[in-house]
Write a structure and sequence with these properties.
The complex is a heterotrimer of chains A (258), B (293) and C (316). Chain A is an alpha/beta fold. Chain A has ten helices and ten strands. In chain A, the strands form two sheets. Chain A has a six-stranded mixed beta sheet with strand order 6-7-8-3-9-10, with helices on both faces. Chain B is mostly helical and 293 residues long. The chains are: A alpha/beta (258), B mainly alpha (293), C mainly alpha (316). At the B-C interface, α4, α9 and α11 of B face α5, α10 and α12 of C. The complex binds adenosine-5'-triphosphate and magnesium ion (MG).
Chain lengths: 258, 293, 316
């Protein structure tokens, strides 16, 4: 790697009880890159995401993000440093409106103080307007503006997945990590999602790391892939290389690799 | 040292009673995740059934205890059917409020029917004798309570470990859906759990009557709360945890009354609870399971 | 521009309604048209509204099951009574000190315990509330179990009304801001909230401390209305009473908490002539309401002018 990496993970280990979920995981992602993390069920992909975002603490290893080690930081601090994610099992704020879901993600940069809120200062009203405009801007991009007043739980699955991306985006991340963003979507929706991912990456100058089972999506948008099996990286490289990698084919044994 | 041993002896029988009540809390919690705040009041009902069996029917203490256990088992099943079952899929807090309602209902219906004053357990039902053993003074009622409570706990262990019913109870606690698929009747299993838990509470109620010599309609509140603390202390939902927690509470209580200010008795018990939760947030035997994301 | 105008119109109409209610009751009191019985119940209502709304911030909006609210009320009641009765300081100082002390107690208790979840938090807060009570029982300066007697009756209608308005305005404004959304996100999904940049611990403690602070206010008003405070008054059953109001009103609904607090106080007063069956009926109502409406009266919705408008078919 000659350019500076946005994130560099070295020797990451994590086990649950006796089960080694992630083992000696090494990984780099450069600024503005779009990288995919694939692997069979239970390979440890989501665990890697959980380690990066501070949900779990690694047993060993470091996660350097813009020159700072994220290990040991609390999840909200990691988010403030510029890492945002979506969840494999959708975790929206179900009883709140779509708009509020997105607004919450902007809270870390709230433009007025607690006293201002309680006393309803002019700054509060200005700030609320700003927040709303911002949230609507993101919803607009994902074509969800007219759903803004619906409760998150009442929307169809595909839309919930997209709201999760909007919500993550609203935290203004540098690195966006997506856990199976196309799960449960039909081919047309998946196609549209690919377009969107490409678009937001350029529009917001994002670096993106995604887990995906849908090989057409992975091969279509990712510039580089990491393949995880039993917690270990078994291959790394551009999609074309991965497609013909023997170990990868073995790992997927019978699963459709492309 | 002798003094200390004496306190332990005194604490064991109280601890055994707390453990019996705590078992009911923990079993119900394990199976439907409900803090059954009415559990202490079931114990009170048991104490009254025992009392009337002794006084009105003139039975001996064993018959009184069995009468109390059977009556309360029926009560427990009915309460679950009428009040808790409709809320099985509602929020936990709604069920909690219902339990508070049931608790108040049992307390005040008893006051309405029997008056608020306390009743004295008949002396003749259990003549108190003191034995001197190696410098210690041991009361026959303490021995009786302790032995009986431990026997009940052993029977419970047997039921849970070795019988089909016990296996069904464990299965429903672990994974209700899977239990249904295995052909276990969830409703029936929950009913049985309430029956067993309530019967144990009833036994504890009669024992408390012997232990303190008086009973009253509000007698379930404080021991109920302490037993609940005991269940949480041991790790709520975990049966051996409830037993250990009960003994810890009983011993602590007698130690504090014996050595310090008895006014602080309750505060110390709660203090220990908080201390343990802060170092081990899911109780002594609880597993700290992080949420899977 | 239109928006700003609407905002002011709404604000002005709210002020007008509040002023009308205040003046009406004030008139009834001074003209002697409101007898002692109604006055006492009115005071209880105000105090219960403050308690319910403040607990609803913790239990309803933040989703943290607290069973120790009466403990904070006790702190407020005792601190205020000490200030006015024993140190001869003005009532307002007593109230401020009560709020401060209760809020501080909330903060100190909240920091370690709010790491606990669900039922474990519930029992820990219950235990801490009881520890506060037992501690008061053991302090000779405040007469132990006998409590403080002969507290001056300073909680007049303006104070009670002011207390209610302050509590409701602060909590409603807080909840309807970005800070409130952060607080609600903790209830909805703590893990997701944390990962979206919300310092969940901070907001849990914040909500807990603010809720405790207003419980302290309620305690101060209570002490200066009912002359006597005893540790026993603030036991865990009192916390249950407050919780019942919040849940019956609907978790996450301030108007629900207010309606429930008012109606339960009224119901208790109405049942006063039948002491024998009062608690039995109360218990049955609890059970029946929960079985048929487990989400409470209002669910997590709010009753607003708009709702009335819709019901009456008036303009929006
Ligand atoms: N909190 C946890 N406690 C115990 N085991 C866990 C936990 N989280 C993950 N695991 C285990 O670690 C392993 C890797 O899980 P992980 O969710 O990372 O897999 P994955 O690659 O994301 O799989 P999938 O494609 O099914 O989402 C699995 O065996 C899983 O059961
Ligand atoms: Mg996964």
């Amino acid at each position: 790697m000659d350019e500076i990496n946005l994130m560099e993970i070295s020797n990451l280990d994590k086990s649950f009880g006796g089960l080694s979920a992630v083992q000696d995981f090494n990984f780099q992602i450069a600024e503005n890159e779009l990288v995919g993390l694939i692997g069979p069920n239970g390979a440890g992909k989501t665990t890697v995401f959980n380690l990066i975002t501070g949900v779990y603490k690694p047993d060993k290893g470091s996660i350097m993000f813009k020159g700072e080690n994220l290990v040991g930081l609390l999840p909200y601090t990691i988010c403030a440093r510029g890492v945002a994610r979506t969840f494999q099992n959708i975790r929206l704020f179900n009883d709140l409106t779509v708009l509020d879901n997105v607004k919450i993600a902007t809270h870390k940069d709230v433009p007025y103080g607690l006293m201002g809120a309680i006393l309803r200062s002019p700054g509060f009203f200005r700030g609320e307007e700003e927040i709303e405009k911002e949230a609507l801007k993101y919803l607009e991009i994902f074509n969800l503006k007219d759903k803004k007043d619906e409760l998150a739980k009442n929307l169809p699955y595909g839309e919930q997945r997209r709201i999760e991306i909007v919500r993550a985006l609203a935290t203004k991340p540098l690195l966006l990590i997506l856990d199976e963003p196309a799960a449960g979507m039909n081919p047309q929706e998946t196609q549209d999602l690919m377009e969107l991912i490409r678009y937001i990456r350029h529009e917001f100058n994002l670096t993106i790391l995604l887990i995906e089972h849908d090989m057409s999506l992975v091969m279509g948008v990712c510039e580089r892939l990491y393949v995880l099996d039993y917690g270990q990286v078994i291959a790394e490289g551009p999609p074309a290389e991965i497609r013909s990698n023997k170990r990868v084919i073995e790992a997927y044994l019978g699963e459709d690799v492309g | 040292m002798l003094e200390f041993t004496q306190q332990i002896v005194n604490g064991l029988s109280l601890g055994a009673i707390y453990a019996l009540i705590a078992l009911g809390y923990t079993m119900v919690y394990g199976i439907i995740k409900l803090i059954n705040f009415a559990h202490g009041d079931i114990m009170m009902v048991g104490a009254f059934v025992g009392y009337f069996s002794l006084t009105l029917l003139g039975t001996n203490i064993f018959v009184a205890m069995i009468a109390a256990m059977v009556t309360c088992a029926v009560f427990g099943v009915l309460i679950e059917k009428i009040a808790y079952r409709p809320l099985r899929n509602a929020t936990r807090i709604a069920a909690l409020i219902t339990a508070i309602g049931v608790s108040l209902f049992l307390e005040y219906i008893t006051i309405f029917l029997l008056g608020p004053s306390q009743k004295v357990f008949p002396e003749s039902a259990f003549p108190i004798k003191a034995y001197a053993v190696g410098g210690l003074s041991i009361l026959n009622k303490d021995v009786f309570v302790f032995v009986l409570a431990v026997a009940l706990m052993l029977i419970l262990q047997y039921i849970i470990k070795w019988t089909k019913t016990g296996k069904a109870m464990r299965a429903v606690s672990l994974d209700r859906e899977a239990a249904v698929l295995m052909g276990i009747s969830v409703d029936k299993t929950i009913s049985i759990t309430f029956a067993i838990g309530s019967a144990l509470a009833a036994a504890a109620g009669v024992m408390l009557g012997i232990y303190y010599n008086t009973i009253n309609p509000l007698m379930g509140i404080i021991p109920g709360l302490k037993a609940f603390v005991a269940a949480v202390l041991g790790g709520i939902g975990i049966i051996p945890g409830a037993m250990v927690g009960g003994f810890v509470m009983g011993l602590l209580e007698t130690m504090v009354s014996g050595y310090g200010n008895s006014l602080y008795r309750d505060a110390v018990a709660f203090g220990v609870l908080i201390f343990i939760l802060l170092i081990k947030p899911s109780g002594i035997f609880g597993e700290d399971t992080g949420e899977k994301v | 521009m239109q928006k700003v105008k609407n905002k002011w119109r709404k604000f002005a109409s709210e002020i007008l309604i509040l002023a009308a209610i205040f003046t009406l009751v004030q008139y009834l009191v001074t003209a002697g048209l409101l007898n002692q019985y109604f006055q006492i119940n009115l005071a209880s209502m105000c105090i219960n509204v403050i308690l319910a709304v403040s607990l609803s911030l913790i239990n309803g909006f933040t989703g943290q099951l607290s069973l120790g609210h009466a403990g904070f009320m006790a702190v407020g009641a005792y601190v205020a009574a000490i200030m006015t009765n024993m140190l001869d300081l003005p009532f307002i100082i007593g109230i401020l000190a009560a709020c401060l002390a209760a809020g501080l107690a909330g903060f100190i208790i909240g920091v370690p315990t709010l790491r606990l979840k669900g039922d474990y938090l519930a029992i820990a807060t219950l235990a801490l509330g009881e520890i506060i009570r037992v501690t008061l029982q053991n302090i000779d300066y405040v007469n132990g179990p006998a409590g403080i007697m002969g507290i001056s009756k300073l909680s007049t209608w303006p104070w009670l009304f002011g207390g209610v308005v302050l509590t409701v305005v602060v909590i409603v404004n807080l909840v309807n801001s970005s800070y409130g959304r952060a607080i609600i996100s903790v209830r909805e999904d703590e893990v997701a909230a944390e990962l979206m940049g919300i310092n969940t611990t901070k907001y849990k403690v914040l909500a807990f401390a603010i809720g405790a602070m207003f419980a302290g206010l309620a305690g101060a008003l209570y002490a200066h209305y009912f002359y006597i405070i005893k540790p026993e008054t603030f036991n865990f059953l009192k916390s249950f009473d407050i919780l019942v109001m919040v849940v019956l009103g609907g978790l996450g609904s301030t108007t629900g908490a207010i309606i429930a607090a008012v109606s339960i106080t009224a119901l208790t007063a109405a049942l006063q002539p039948f002491p024998a069956i009062r608690m039995i009926l109360y218990a049955l109502i609890l059970i029946i309401v929960m079985i048929y409406r487990p989400q409470g009266l209002m669910g997590n919705k709010e009753l607003s002018m708009k709702t009335f408008g819709r019901i009456w078919g008036g303009r929006n």
